[in-house]
Design a protein that fits this description.
The complex is a heterodimer of chains A (264) and B (196). Chain A is of the alpha+beta class and 264 residues long. Chain A contains eight helices and nine strands. In chain A, strands 1-7-4-3-2-9-8-5-6 form a nine-stranded antiparallel beta sheet, covered by helices on one side. With 196 residues, chain B is mostly helical. Chain B is built from eight helices and no strands. In chain B, helix 7 packs across helix 8. The relative contact order of chain B is 0.12. The chains are: A alpha+beta (264), B mainly alpha (196). At the A-B interface, helix 2, helix 4 and helix 5 of A face helix 2, helix 3, helix 4, helix 5 and helix 6 of B.
Chain lengths: 264, 196
């Protein structure tokens, strides 16, 4: 499609009434066309405002009681505040299993909690709690927090999945991401080539605007890596993800060779 | 006020209480937003029982996930309306899949509506919503029908063309013209500086 043909789709895209094929074409175009991004953005508040054009109707009388009654029976989920952080090997194994099967994590968490409780008991018993044990306990606490956070992502009903394909420089590598606006992003990759000296792999969320860094990847010696990232709620809707090779320490915007790319 | 600048959003405080497990926070949110959410669900589903269930689901999720909402990013009202529309669309698609409304659609039933970037929620007032409602009513009927089928029923434009027995190109044009007209009204009302 030409630019003009694509631009005609901006209103329909903002209204989410395009077909799946049109969406793919249009979102690919959006990554490189400022004019169309601005056109879509100009329609968004109007589309949002359409929610307020529904004729006002009072909800049924009993609904308030049912809403509040249901809430009193269910606990509030814990807050996730952990910033971007690469997973350690221990939780990575659990996460990989989770992504493959999305089952068994409950058991894993229970197991971690059990080990944490045992360590806490041990610490209480001995006055000579070694620094090493404290560290283990901290690691376990973190593992439980992160496993809980990942479970929130993967258990979300409105979960977006992005499969990434390897570019020639990383032939054989595989990667996949799951994203949910309110819970965050889970990314997993395997068979990544060894990162060149002085370089680092950086993960990007591609949006209709500039790419947003989702952090640095630190693959294990086998080339596998898992990452959980809490994403801001106002992250523009991801249209894809990419991994690039960047100078050590990472960069604000991608500059280096792209080794993985996936469009939603 | 459904949409306001997030920093001023009084609903954030209620949500904060809900996040601490205080049901009073949820009650305040209910009193602020329930009729808006129910109205949107009714407009989409045209069924009181289904709409009630959707609203109940949305508040249940708001309660469970209150802590995951980040203040300063968009508005609580916009977030709740977005969840309401998303759930109502799920039900419409399920109905269509069961043949209760329309034949099978081109759209993947698992596909979800694109989430709205929440920064778009900051500047819309109920007054502007009211102006949009008026402007929608004043659009040529064929443009209004196409827009409403897209927004309230979540149909893609081939589906709308099918429903209205119109050529696809015609439907695309109607949607574009209709939404462009509403945007003009919206921009004008923003410039008039309607008090929030």
């Amino acid at each position: 499609m030409t630019h003009d043909e694509l631009r005609e789709l901006a209103a329909a895209y903002a209204l989410d009434t395009v077909t799946a094929a049109e969406r793919v074409a249009f979102e690919a175009h959006l990554t490189e066309c400022v004019e169309c991004r601005s056109e879509v953005a100009s329609f968004r508040p109007v589309v949002q405002g359409l929610a307020l054009t529904a004729p006002l109707q009072a909800p049924p009388r009993g609904l308030r009681g049912r809403v509040l009654g249901a809430a009193s029976e269910r606990p509030v989920e814990p807050r996730i505040t952990r910033p971007v952080r690469v997973w350690g090997w221990g939780t990575a194994a659990a996460l990989a299993a989770l992504i493959v099967a999305a089952i068994g994590l409950g058991g894993h968490i229970a197991n971690l909690r059990g080990r944490m409780a045992a360590l806490e008991a041990e610490l209480r018993k001995t006055a000579l709690a070694a620094a090493r044990d404290r560290q283990s306990l901290e690691d376990l606490r973190r593992a439980v927090d992160e496993a809980d956070a990942a479970r929130l992502v993967l258990g979300a009903t409105d979960l977006a999945r992005i499969d990434l394909k390897a570019e020639a420089a990383a032939a054989g590598a595989r990667a996949r991401a799951f994203w949910n606006r309110s819970s965050g992003l889970v990314f997993t990759a395997s068979a990544l080539p060894t990162v060149p000296d002085g370089k680092v792999y950086q993960l990007w969320v591609l949006t209709a605007g500039d790419p947003v860094s989702a952090g640095l990847l630190r693959p294990d010696p086998g080339g596998s890596v898992d990452l959980f990232v809490k994403t801001p709620l106002d992250l523009p809707a991801p249209v894809g993800m990419a991994v690039t090779v960047e100078p050590s320490g990472g960069v604000p915007q991608p500059t280096g060779e792209r080794i993985l790319l996936g469009l939603e | 006020m459904i949409f306001r600048v997030a920093a001023d959003d009084p609903a954030i405080a209620h949500l904060g209480r809900a996040a601490q497990g205080d049901p009073e926070g949820l009650a305040e949110l209910y009193d602020l937003f329930a009729s808006r959410l129910f109205s949107l669900a009714m407009r989409m589903l045209r069924d009181a029982q289904d709409s009630e269930e959707v609203v109940q689901d949305v508040f249940a999720q708001a309660w469970r996930r209150a802590a995951a909402y980040e203040a300063g990013r968009g508005t609580v009202g916009g977030w709740l309306l977005m969840m309401t529309r998303s759930r109502a669309l799920d039900r419409l698609r399920a109905r269509r899949a069961q043949g209760r409304a329309l034949p099978a659609t081109e759209r993947d039933p698992d596909e979800l509506p694109a989430p709205f970037p929440s920064q778009d929620l900051v500047a819309i007032t109920v007054e502007q919503g009211e102006q949009l409602r008026k402007a929608l009513g004043e659009l040529p009927a064929e443009q209004r029908d196409a827009l409403e089928l897209a927004y309230f029923e979540g149909l893609t434009h081939p589906e709308i063309a099918d429903r209205l027995s119109q050529p696809l190109g015609t439907v695309k044009t109607r949607i574009r013209l209709g939404l462009t007209k509403l945007r003009e009204v919206f921009v004008r009302s923003s410039k008039q500086g309607i008090p929030t």
